[in-house]
Structure formats: C-alpha cells, structure tokens
Design brief:
about 240 residues, alpha/beta, single chain
C-alpha cells in the first residue's frame, strides 16, 4: 500500500476548491518561491507518513459535509505531484466512495503515463502560475516555467476543470503590462475560475523559526484598490474571478 509524506491536514477547508474540503498538504517542493508561505513543506521528509487506507478512513468521517457542500478532497503542498504513485492509489479509492478530487499544483512535472493515469481520477486542477516570463519565473522560484506551461496545455487538451491561481506580488506580477499579458494568455484556455491572491507576509515567523532569510522583507503588502482594479480587469475580460 502506498504511503505519503504528509505535512498537515485540514478537514474543513474552504479556500482550496469548491465547497467544504479535506485538504491534505504533502511534503516536498521543487520551487523556492520568494513569496512562499509554507517553507516548512519544502523538504520531502519522512517522519509523518500515512498510508492510503488510513487517509481514506479519515476522509470518510467528514463525507457528509463534503457531499452537502459540493466539496471533496484537495491535495496540496508543497507540491503533490512529487508523490504521484500515492495520489493514483488515493484518488482511485476516493472515487469508489464518489468523492470529488482536486490537486493544487505548480505544474512542474514530467508528462508521462503515471500523470495520465492520475488525471483520470482528478476532477479539478488548481494551477499556480508564478510568472509567464521565463527569467522572472526563475528569479521568483529558482526554476523555469517550461514544465508548468506544458502542463497547462496538457490538462486543457484533456478538458479538465482548471482554476488558475496568481499571486499578486508588487514588482513582479501587478504592473499593467503583465496583467494584460496574462489575461490575453489565459484567453486561449478553458479556465473555469481565476483566483488572484494578494501577497502577504504572514509567514515571516516561520522563516525565523527555520533559520531562513525572509526574501521579500522590503516588499509592501498590495493596496486593496490595486487588487480590486486588477480583479475588475479580469472580470471585464470575461473571467470568473475571486
């Protein structure tokens, strides 16, 4: 039976997909985003392993809430696609109980048969786009965006339900030129919803506890009116925005 390296579990999540959701946060991530609010998930680790059956059993305790709210299970991280063999088995078992499944991912993954198999049992993909520009993406995450953009093409061709997540970070993703470019780029895809997530610095304490330098210490929190202006631009271009 497959096991997962688990960071934490939220049984009544409302921010990671529709309805009330069981959110499973896995350890390990290929990115080192400057704005990351979960640096404690970066390393894979092995001290909190859970197997498929015990996680499914835990999910079923709350199934009534998920069913009644059109919710389900979301696997996040870190980066969940680092643990695809586990996810295949986990999602297969969830589907025997008619439970909706979602993955929150950065899309930095090799497209292969394992991924194809996993997506057969995946209802919704929440894809985090860090930046469309390759060099800016490297600056923000430490990796380029080629795999992410290929992944977006792939899931769009599979006609999967897609929500796009974009962190709004001053000096990187909030200027008018970038927003216009992002809007035009996304128009070619079948995007169900766009989530615009204003940068915040609430993770400063985590960095201090981990002995890490907080990389955006001089970055200001976005002004509410600037965030609303960007949201309205997406709405005016026909996107469903939260």
């Amino acid at each position: 039976m497959k096991t997962a390296n688990v960071h934490s579990i939220q049984t009544m999540g409302t921010l990671d997909g529709p309805g009330i959701r069981y959110v499973l946060f896995l350890q390990g991530c290929p990115f080192r985003c400057l704005f990351c609010h979960n640096p404690d998930t970066w390393n894979v680790g092995a001290d909190n392993k859970k197997n498929v059956d015990e996680l499914v059993e835990d999910v079923l305790k709350y199934k009534e809430f998920y069913d009644n709210s059109a919710g389900g299970v979301t696997v996040s991280g870190g980066e969940p696609l680092l643990q695809i063999p586990f996810l295949i088995e986990f999602f297969k078992k969830l589907k025997t109980h008619n439970i909706s499944t979602a993955i929150d991912t950065c899309g930095h993954v090799v497209i292969n048969k394992d991924l194809e198999e996993l997506l057969k049992y995946t209802d919704l993909i929440l894809l985090d786009i860090k930046h469309l520009d390759k060099q800016k993406h490297i600056e923000l995450t430490g990796q380029d965006n080629l795999k992410t953009l290929k992944f977006l093409d792939y899931i769009n061709n599979l006609q999967k339900r897609i929500w796009i997540r974009q962190v709004l970070t001053p000096d990187y993703t909030m200027d008018n030129d970038y927003i216009e470019k992002l809007i035009e780029f996304l128009k070619q895809y079948n995007i169900e919803k766009v989530e615009l997530l204003p940068y915040h610095d609430m993770a400063r304490g985590k960095y201090e506890k981990l002995g890490l330098h907080y990389p955006l210490e001089n970055t200001q929190i976005p002004e509410k009116q600037d965030v609303e202006r960007i949201k309205q631009n997406f709405v005016d271009n026909g996107f469903n925005v939260v």
